[in-house]
Amino acid sequence: MQRKTRIALAAGIIVIATGVTGAIVVGATSGDRETPIVGTELDRATAAALAHTGGGRVTGTEVGDEDNFYEVEVTLDDATLVDVQLDKNFGFVDAIADTESGTAND
């Protein structure tokens, strides 16, 4: 292969790789995917949510939720799902329970 051909091929591969990487980063930060709560923030959010619901188990979390800063999904013993909304300081904001007829604020 001639040197110019190899350089052009390498440049094309770099352009494609850069485009794919950029698309992945944009997709990960564009709100299309939920970002789970991790580390000590997860511990604090879990404690705050379970204190509000009086028990259950955490089955999902999200930081940067569209409604509030943290969202913690708690599944109660009766299988009811409660989305507990918390502020940046892990203070209770709202809770939305999934009911048989839809959702209801708690």
In a nutshell, what does this entry contain?
The protein has helices at 3-29, 39-53, and strands at residues 57-63, 70-75, 81-86, 92-99, 102-105.
Looking at this protein, list some descriptive labels.
about 110 residues; alpha+beta; SHC Adaptor Protein; 2 domains; five-stranded antiparallel beta sheet; 2 helices
What this model shows, in words?
It is elongated and about 70 Å long. Strands 1-2-3-4-5 form a 5-stranded antiparallel sheet, covered by helices on one side. It folds into 2 domains: 1-33; 39-105, SHC Adaptor Protein. By secondary structure, it is of the alpha+beta class. Strand 3 (81-86) and strand 4 form a beta hairpin. The protein contains 2 helices and 5 strands. The chain is 40% helix and 29% strand.
Distance between the termini: 69 Å
**Uncertain spans:** 20-30
Query: What do the pLDDT scores average to?
Result: 78
User: Which term fits the overall shape?
Assistant: elongated
- Count of discrete structural domains: 2
Element string (H = helix, E = strand): HHEEEEE
Task: Name the CATH class of the largest domain.
Answer: Alpha Beta
Largest sheet: 5 strands, antiparallel
Number of contiguous helices: 2
CATH architecture of the largest domain: 2-Layer Sandwich
Amount of beta strand? 25-35%
The portion of residues assigned to helices is 25-40%
Radius of gyration, taken over Cα atoms and rounded to an integer in Å: 22 Å
Count of individual beta strands: 5
- Supply the helix-strand structural class: alpha+beta
**Can you tell me the CATH topology of the largest domain?**
SHC Adaptor Protein
Widest beta sheet: strand line-up: 1-2-3-4-5
